[in-house]
Amino acid sequence: MARATIRDVARVAGVSDGTVSNTLNRPHLVNETTRERVLRAIETVGYIPNAAARALRVGRSRSIGLVVLSVGNPFFADVANGAEQAATDAGADLALFETGLGERQREERLLRRLGERRLDGLIITPQDVEDPLLEDLERRGTPVVVLAREVPSRRRSAVRSDDDLGGVLAARHLLEMGHRRLAFAGWRRDERYDGAIRTASAAGGSLTWMDTTSDRITDGIAVGTHLVSLDAAERPTAVFCANDLIAVGLVRAATHAGLRIPEDLAVVGFDDTDLASAASAVELTSVHQPATEIGRAAVRIVLDEMADRTRERRDLVFEPELVVRESSTARQARRRSSGRRT
């Protein structure tokens, strides 16, 4: 007896060869009614083992979407690397998407498109952790795990670093170096800012907000250019940046204008990406968060929820560490600090 082919399946199901191929390889592109008809035809002609057909029928494509703000941000690149490793180990497919910082409409379009694709799971750094579109996805049976954000309602799982503690560590270090006029350069007053300003205020220091609007090196250059234009008697003597990209840009602008780092201006970044030690005029002190492990953990959690939607939601929080380099202290020795809250 001749072996059954895709054409045989298509003839029995009354569809094209391409529809059969999509059902096998890209089931999210085929509507449910057609997919069921194709799967019945597959079983009828014996094109693939019945067990495999049954697995497709219940939708076990194990496809996971990873939505980040910027694939050009080294932190998210490292997260994606860890997520890809975990997905591959589990035999799942991972698709990477970018929304852009503050681009709400772009994110809405992407979420609606992903809803049509019927992903098995979604990991996302959303503009709004309580976005109704995320709830719509969950209602359709797609578990959602929030990345690098806290979910106060605990209605969905989250994987993140303790950003508040990261802010505490950065501000405490700068205060210990003798600074009292601090600044925070970032695009939102988040937990990193909260931890830093609380720590500075408690020590009798000040923390000036410097809005970057975005998270790129060019934003850091803009902040640095503004800082050097200020009178030296009033200028902050230390800056805590929301990420390493901003910190690198700030250091470049400050050194180009003739300021010495850290003698005239101390700088601390956040994420401790490769940029911190390789892409700046001086090695950058930075708050380390384990990006690769965060990506792995997010995939493991979403896989668990894909297997059992009744599982209790989790808030997995990693403790950051301060990695001290020459941008904040004249001492060349590198050291780590992971002080607990006090």
Furnish the topology, listing elements before pairings:
Blueprint: H1 6-13, H2 17-25, H3 32-45, H4 50-57, E1 63-68, H5 74-89, E2 93-98, H6 104-117, E3 121-124, H7 132-139, E4 144-147, E5 157-161, H8 163-176, E6 181-186, H9 191-202, E7 206-211, H10 217-228, E8 238-241, H11 244-256, E9 266-271, H12 275-278, E10 285-288, H13 291-307, E11 315-318, E12 321-324, E13 335-337
Parallel strand pairs: 1-2, 1-3, 3-4, 4-5, 5-11, 6-7, 6-8, 8-9, 9-10
Antiparallel strand pairs: 10-12, 12-13
Helix pairs in contact: 1-2, 1-3, 3-4, 5-13, 6-7, 8-9, 10-11
**Describe the biggest sheet?**
7 strands, mixed
| End-to-end gap | 76 Å
Q: Could you estimate the helical fraction of the residues in percent?
A: 40-55%
Q: Determine the strand fraction and express it as a percent band.
A: 15-25%
Strand order of the largest sheet: 7-6-8-9-10-12-13
